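Record 1 of the preview.
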Amino acid sequence: MALKTAILRMQGISKSFPGVKALKNVTFEVEKGTVHALIGENGAGKSTLMKILNGVYQADEGDIYLDGARVTIPNTRAAMNLGLSMIYQELNEVPEMTIAENIFLGREPKTKLGTVDFKKLYDDARQLFASFQFPYDVYDKMKALSVANMQMIEIIKAMSRNAKLIVMDEPTSSITDKEVGILFDFIRRLKQDGVTIIYISHRLEELAQIADRVTVLRDGETIDTRPMAELSKDEIVRMMVGREMTEYFPKVEVPIGEEVLRVRGLRCEGVFHDVSFSVHAGEILGIAGLIGAGRTETLGAVFGLHPYDAGEIVLDGKRIRIRGTRDAVDHGIVMVPENRKAQGAVLIRSVGENITLPHLRRYRHYCLRTKAERGDVQRQIERFRIKVPDMDCRVDSLSGGNQQKVILGKWLLVTPRVLILDEPTRGIDVGAKHEIYKYMCELAAEGIATIMISSELPEVLGMSDRILVMANGRITGELSRAEADSEKILRYAMEGT
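->
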């Protein structure tokens, strides 16, 4: 039944891409002045539906109604003129410009002479900062901000457009719990002012705090729309994946073998200090800590992404020197990075090319796709259940979960000694997370030493055999699986902060 106070109704929306039916007769209705969660597994069609609403894509079939009137949205400018705004998960900052200039980029206030009115621009930015409790100066450059704070700027930018309907695509994926609280307070204030929020998130625990209604998409189709108060997390998961998930963290205990990697006294001035740890065959070593603790930089140094000033890396009892990523790969150390789109994959190239890229020396013909190469790619597609029409489709056409599987397939084409996973399930849905966890258990059973950096405490507690906690570039605590809990981890993570 249609809502009497619906601000938005998308009816019979269908959209196809080459080899993929992304949306199939989707109906989506949102009540004015509410927070409406749009959820589903990666590849369910959430982002495609919202890009149609915001003029990025055009639907093959279907109609869009705003405040009861049928509208056409040919481009993003038309969407903005209709009072629609979208915060994308991927950041769109200009690093060398100031924060204020980034916020008003493309819509700067003008003087009577037609030049940019910088006084008004910076005054307006200060007012936004004050209302959003943002602790930076408007003159600071974007490049000085952390990823978390850049995400907050994207949110402030959207709020500054005075939109009547705002789409937030994973707005909390890279921000701290404190910043999440500030964001939720701001969303509640927007609701009081009659602004409508469409909220896309894979963090199901957030929905109970912020969502009024929930729509679930699966395989490009609408499954159901229900009040959030009527749904449990288990019911939402069942609707998303279409099956029972018997255990959210499918941790399997495997024998812990010999020490594979030992790091002694690793240091990079101003970044991390005197870091020492080890990881064994078959072990999943969790690395916890707050944003900015130095986790990514430390393990990036082990993989050759970042330099280190002092310390040593010992692999299978022999000291090695890592001068770059090629050294690490040659020694059997591989890393799935936090920022998969910038560092993990070549988005404009095919799935097959991405999977074999680090291993071209395995194939005789570098410019031609050999039978052996295509066979290896197909095996990885099947092993990691990558949903693709064929191996020649571009990686940027895949969902986040399938992109992550491509990166795993790339590094696990040849069995490594050490696998480093940096935020391995960030931005992917509950079904894909469950699959990643199962792969981690399978790899541990094969004797691979795994190091997992994660900001999600349930994930760290659910999947780790042992947990290290970092704060201010140092290891502040070590906990066994049996003794670890959220309170102890947070206590170590806040040491010296």
